[in-house]
Amino acid sequence: MLSHIPLEAFRVFDAACRHMNFSRAGRELNITQAAVSRRIKGLEDHLGAALFQRRGKNLALTPKGERLFQRVRATLDYLEESLEAFRPQTGGTIAIAASGSVSHLWLGRRLQDFGNENPQTSLRLLTSDTPSDLASENNDLVILYSAGEHPRWDLTLLLPEVLSPVAAPAYLASRGIDAAAVTIEEIARLDLIDYERFNAHWISFRQWFDRLSAKQRVKPPAPRYSFSTYVMAIDAAVRGDGIALGSLGLIDQQLRDGRLVQVGGEQLSTGYGYYLGLPRHKTVAPEVMRLYTALIGQT
């Protein structure tokens, strides 16, 4: 049925619903009142349902008209939002891509600060854990989990990956644990919070224990809680559910404000890190360089 309805009819219907007046809808769309009436009548005929109740000069939506208006408005809003990426912006638009954990734990508040200081610049953040999405050259800047090399991006280290168990002070206090004195064997007996590894280079608690407890021969324990994302694991640790494996650079804010503390003295430097990338094969706009410099200055 939709293929037989002119798409313009939905735009006319939307304007008529918003104004509840065919004359005003026509002025918005630069068509006559009669043209609005014809398109509404044609839409009603196609759908086999009355959309408006007409009482003299007053209009009201029928129940079916109200349902259709809600769906048409949601669709038009979605299309308008989708087109934003193709419209020129007065101060330019910067497209930056980062993983979910980086976006949530580190990047988001820094983009907010940059936006407040540069109100003429629009920011578009792509959050994805898919490497091809992150490394797409459609982005102006990227933050990649890497060992420092990429064929299409010039990478500068933002945060080296250093992993250490972390927990909320309240969790440690409830178990009488001295965070500075706890041993790796004792950590293995606590409530461990882990996450699913979707990248072969990511480190979870099993790999952490394997690398650091070779001499102690601590058997890698099964986690008490396991989450689908790293962000959810950190949030659970902040709530006091147990001990998570903290990437210290990403959770700097939680460590500074005391929501999390390091547990024990063992840290693992993985050789990987989070790198800020500039494209090698396209010109970098001045506003992109401003954001690049601002993020580098935050490390």
UniProtKB/TrEMBL annotation:
InterPro entries given in the database record: LysR-type_TF_proteobact-type (IPR058163), LysR_HTH_N (IPR000847), LysR_subst-bd (IPR005119), WH-like_DNA-bd_sf (IPR036388), WH_DNA-bd_sf (IPR036390)
Protein family: Belongs to the LysR transcriptional regulatory family.
Keywords: DNA-binding, Transcription, Transcription regulation
Protein name: DNA-binding transcriptional LysR family regulator
Molecular function, one GO term: DNA binding
Matching SUPFAM superfamilies: Periplasmic binding protein-like II (SSF53850), Winged helix' DNA-binding domain (SSF46785)
Residue stretches making up the HTH lysR-type domain: 5-62
Record PANTHER family: HTH-TYPE TRANSCRIPTIONAL REGULATOR, HTH-TYPE TRANSCRIPTIONAL REGULATOR TRPI
Domain of life: Bacteria
UniProt keyword Chloroplast, yes or no: no
